[in-house]
Amino acid sequence: MPLATPDQYGEMIDAARAGGFAYPAVNVSSSETLNAALRGFAEARSDGIVQITTSAAEYLAGPAEDMAAGARAFAEFAHVLAASSPVFVALHTDHCTPEHVDGFLRPLLSESRRRRERGEQPLFNSHMFDGSELPLAENLRVSGELLREANELDILLELEIGTVGGEEDGINHERVARERLYSTREDALTVAATLGAGEGGRHLLAATFGNVHGRYSPGKVRLRPELLGELQDAVTKRFTATRGFDFVFHGGSGSTVDEIRTAVAHGVVKMNVDTDMQYAFTRAVGDHLSAVSTAADDLDEGVDKKVYDPRAWGRKAEAAMAERVVEACETLGSAGRTLAQD
Ligand SMILES: [Zn+2]
Question: Could you give the C-alpha distances from 12 to 23, 47, 286, in angstroms and in order?
């Protein structure tokens, strides 16, 4: 199955809203983690989303040190490999802060424009612009501009209101004021009045409800997923033609199944999962390497290639992460619900 077309991506989101489930959006940063996501979605018979952050894109670029080039190379690689996937997979770029719009988002939109002119699919199905550090009016002005450009290319835009706490990939909001972690009805109404709730150009909304990136001990973060229901109510009452927002859940690692299900019931269609995936992957590498370090070997007498071949730990890590992807699909209810026909 080639990567989800823009229409198929739209159908995926509609199916999630109608069916009361959500897709895991798995953060990846390498060919192994991409393959782990593809493997996990296939095993779960779930459609899904694979995403990269700006810093993962920079990492993927290696010595080129160009995040847009890294994202382009990654997307081309994913387009080829996803062709044999039995389920629909969509590609997304995660948090792009204002400072990276010109060096990351715009070059990727330009590349998608060139692809569209050649009659090909866009490079990515959706991009996130994270203007949460800006005053809301400015955030929505830039979001609106990018939304129009993206929609012209059949690409969706994800935007953020409120602020996701914690630290992820160089974006640090560990000291953000507590009330900023929760979006307000006024914020949601302003988004709907400015950009619509989908009818003014399709977008996904990361409205925060106490979300924090990374894994936190229970009790330290108070998630209020029911806040999403309050935002939906406020918006659908004021703007009666809308079905409300398609929400994105950030910082989902460490959340309880109840919190996740409540969020999904209030319109979350995409939940980002990063920390739990990183843990599953690296834990398997650690287990492999600790076995290596305790094995007596001598370089002069020849080392066991079966142990030192990077594929030896790569395969184990990929399998462990794929298993975690399957678990995420089950929790979010997307397992067994692929729209792809055999
Ligand atoms: Zn996030």
Answer: 9, 8, 36
How many Cα atoms within 13 Å fall on the side-chain side of residue 283? 11
Q: Which two tokens stand for residue 305?
A: 């290639």
Tell how far the Cα of 250 is from the centroid of ligand 1, in angstroms. 4
Q: How far apart are CA 278 and CA 33, in angstroms?
A: 9
CB within 8 Å of 256: residues ≥ 6 apart: 218
The reported pLDDT for the residue numbered 342 is 66
pTM: 0.94
Residue 49 in tokens: 């989303």
Q: How far is the CA of 92 from the centre of ligand 1 (A)?
A: 12
Q: Specify the pLDDT at position 200.
A: 66
User: Which residue from 56, 33, 39 is spatially nearest to 276, judged by alpha carbons?
Assistant: 33
- Taken as a whole, the chain contains a residue count of 342
Which segments in the chain show pLDDT lower than 50? Answer: none
- Whether 94 is a known active-site residue: answer yes
Q: What pLDDT, in 10s, does the model give residues 216-254?
A: 655 566 899 999 999 999 999 998 878 899 999 998 888
Amino acid in position 331:
T
Query: What is the pLDDT at residue 63?
Result: 97
pLDDT, tens digit, 9 for 90 and up, residues 123-143: 999 999 999 999 999 999 999
- Residue 157's nearest CA partner among 251, 246, 57 is 246
Ligand 1 geometric centre to CA of 24 (Å): 13
Angle (deg, nearest 10), helices 136-152 and 106-117:
20
Choice among 94, 246, 274, 276 that is catalytic:
94
